[in-house]
Amino acid sequence: MSHACAPPAARGLTPVLPVVAVVALLALPVAPGGEGGATLADAASGVVVLCCAVRLLRHRRRPLSRTAAVVLGLPVVGFAVAATGAATPGVAVAGFGRYLQIFVLVPAAVLLLVRDRRDVRLLVWSMVGLAVWQGTLGVHQYATGTGASYTGRDIRAVGTFGPGDIMGMATVVSFGLVCAVGLALGAASARQRVWAGVCALLLVMPLAVSFSRGAWIATVLACGAQLVLTGLRRAVRAGAVVAAVAVILVGGFGVGSTLLEQRLSSIGQVADAPDQSVTDRYTMWAAATGMWRERPLTGIGLKGFPDHRDGHASLSLSSGSDTEGASAAYRRQPLLSPHNMYLLVLSEQGLIGLLTLAGSWLALLVLGLRRLVRARGANDPGLDCALIACGLLVWQLIDFGYADIGGPSTVLTAVCFGLTAWWALASPGAAVAEKTPACPGPAVAEEAAAR
């Protein structure tokens, strides 16, 4: 029996369920003191890759098209070169494996396991559900003073990620917000648009009380890009509604609005009395640039930033950041990365690593936007998938200017890259899968090519 057309009863047994399981596992609390190690979600991402490999062998399918193989495989060159410069073989293997997991293996597995747009929407709604769960916990932490410490009060929303991964909840909520906005703007079902709009509005508050400036900037710009891509007139109307709701939600929280105003104003305080976190960030950026100048092509080696930091940082850099609250004891957390993905790659992998990795991301963005424009011009019912895929990538590329990989939520970044890769690189057959529900898109395309 050909695998091109599966019986309708098999429709529910979607191969994307292991990816949904990865998302679901991120709802579990992070063990105190375990923020830096592998989590259940990381282990599940390995299962996702294994499931993908088994499925390819079972169906005897060609893994990736030539374009997809080049785009997703290009960063491996930079990873391999940087691994040769690592301090020890153990560090080289650990660093190479982590980068391979986040930027190559898991995205490729998601690309191959997603059959059509219904699978995309299932995965997207699971991300929105995770964001609502984490956001609800975050708002409760803010309201009851049980969150992470911020300005001397335990009010910072961190969800289940704890104070050791301050960006965790903000990242998850931002992804959910971008997904919800994409569904609200492009979903063919009116019911989905309404529920997605409600979820997007609900997620504004937890994102605000995460007090994460980088997440705020990335989310505003990514959602703004989604609105613009649907039409300027619609963008203006939707932007006015969102702004009004944000004012209502934030304005009624008294001291919270003052804290948010102070946090927003601190974004521009670079030269004029910046706070210590801003000073530390720019000091580490300068240190990363200094490391790159030593070895412009290959960098100092994977995971080499912590060992070289003190030799390149100025005396204005503090020894670490204070973390406590959210049921965790006080801890002095060392600053082991520049909190800028581009500078981290540049310092550890040099120009070769940055050009190969950023080149892969740029190719995904260009290919994704090109397909989005075509989908919009053809009144494609899958416009929501296009807006979500491009919005997530735009968010990530902007946020990488303020953050880098690390923490339990990093595996969700890999899933988002996979969704973007599916939209940008999947065979054209996947685009008509909704019209032929019994036939997975990639299989249809392969059978047509064989004829």
> What string gives the helices and strands in order?
HHHHHEEHHHHHHHHEEHHHH
Q: Tally the helices: what do you get? A: 17
Terminal-residue CA separation: 17 Å
Radius of gyration, in angstroms, nearest whole number: 22 Å
Unreliable residue runs: 1-10, 435-451
Number of strands: 4
Strand content: under 5%
Estimate percent helicity.
55-70%
Largest sheet report: 2 strands, antiparallel
Lateral arrangement of strands in the main beta sheet: 1-2
**What gross morphology would you assign?**
globular
Structural class determined from secondary elements:
mainly alpha
Mean pLDDT: 84
Element layout with pairings:
Blueprint: H1 17-25, H2 40-59, H3 66-83, H4 89-113, H5 117-144, E1 148-150, E2 153-156, H6 166-186, H7 190-202, H8 204-208, H9 213-229, H10 232-251, H11 255-265, H12 276-294, H13 305-312, E3 321-325, E4 328-333, H14 341-377, H15 383-399, H16 410-425, H17 441-450
Antiparallel strand pairs: 1-2, 3-4
Summarize the structure.
This protein has 451 residues and is mainly α. It contains 17 helices and 4 strands.
